[in-house]
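Task: complex structure prediction.
Instruction: return structure tokens for all chains below.
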Amino acid sequence: MPRLILFWVILGFIAPLALAATPAEEQAAFQGYFKRRFPSVPENEFKNGVYAIDPVMRANWEAIEEFPPYEQAIARGEELWKTPFANGRTYADCFPDGPAIANRYPRWDREHGTVVTLSLALNDCRKANGEEPLPYNKGPLVDLLAYIAYQSRGQITQVEIPEDDPRALEAYTKGKRFYFARRGQLNFSCAHCHFANSGAKLRTETLSPALGHTTHWPVYRSEWGEVGTLHRRFAGCNEQVRAKAFPLESEEYRNLEYFLTYMNNGQELNGPGARK
Amino acid sequence: MSLFSDQTAYWRRLAGLLACLIPLTAPLAGAELPEAINLDGDPESGRQIAFDRAKGNCVSCHVIAGATSPGSIGPVLTAIQTRFPSKHELAKQIWDPTVRNPDAVMPPFGKHEIFTPKEFADVVSFIWTL
Amino acid sequence: MGYIDWVRIGSIILLVATNSAWAEENTEVEQAIAAAEGARQQAASVGGEWRDTAKLIAKAKELAQAGQIQEAIALANRARRQGELGYEQALREQNADFPAYVFGKP
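Output:
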């Protein structure tokens, strides 16, 4: 009997604490965690991913950035941005403040009740103008992203979770659950590699901290031999643990992007990036 | 004609009977390390599996004597027989590390059938020699 | 009955037996593959499908068509267990959240 009482007393203390965390509190804890973990890394360096914490790799990367491998993608993207659709209108008609609009995404779309990423918004614009949507994995859409990212350099991440629409919080929560759930045959969550083991070596690869993960997309990866998107990276990290990847721009990945980008609020955008 | 259907029915029943026995012999989804598992493996082939990137890839997280460019996520695998009272206890760690530590960042090589039973016995036998 | 009759009856029994054994094997592999596909879909329904499960099933179908029935069954059973494990994993992890250490003080 006394044990049972003790149980309820303890639960009474723990339950409110466990339920209390709001997205803003979780964001503060997240950022605080990485700053404590890497006390010598200045806050505005996390956007450089693994190169913020691994000096050897950094030297190599700085050499690569002298002749950025994503330059052609930016140029092609600019061309696309300026080329009118068949109806004579352009992307600028959909995005009057464009092309520097990267930090407005991902955003909660109240009307459709879903998270809208920049890729999705670009294809929505095409469809509204009678054009075919572009594939999400490579090609012209990624070029457009590269151009927009370049024009948006220096903007600050500022994702909002509108408090008057509970569905937005739900999308955030789904993204959070996705992030922390173990998955795949190897049974890892994202956090297993990018939180407690960030800075450690997985064989030869240094694991980057999750703070800074959303700042520099799209990315030219030598492994891809081309510029690719954040969702393509999500898919790669899923398959790495032998989980089936989700389709790019699926609801799962958009919610994940919403959560992860919100965690990175305050970080400066510096895309497109270059990575190994 | 009736002979055929009778025969078929007989075989069906026999197959049904055998099918009932299958769960007793095949590994069970979500199972713990079977008490009676055979751990008599070949340490040399276990070494190859432990070093192989596509297979065990223990080296991506553990320093193991003789392996190049190891990772730093798990502890150095050494003096194993002072760390584990028996081969069976060692096998439990490799079967499913989350039993001992729910937050373990090591794949459940046995439980998730990343290894075949033979590979599992080989790797346990190799690690036991460290 | 003469010697030849016994041989005839014997071969008929043998034929029938092997034929129905073959039929039985065939339904067994079909069932194994169907069970694997069911388990894969169940895992997928909760976002818990593993990377190689569908590939294992495709390979099992190939083997079955090539007449390698026992190998096909073994592979299908492996795929089924993957589906079951992936499903259980997803249910176990459905409320996953921040680890406590993130909130800890230095």
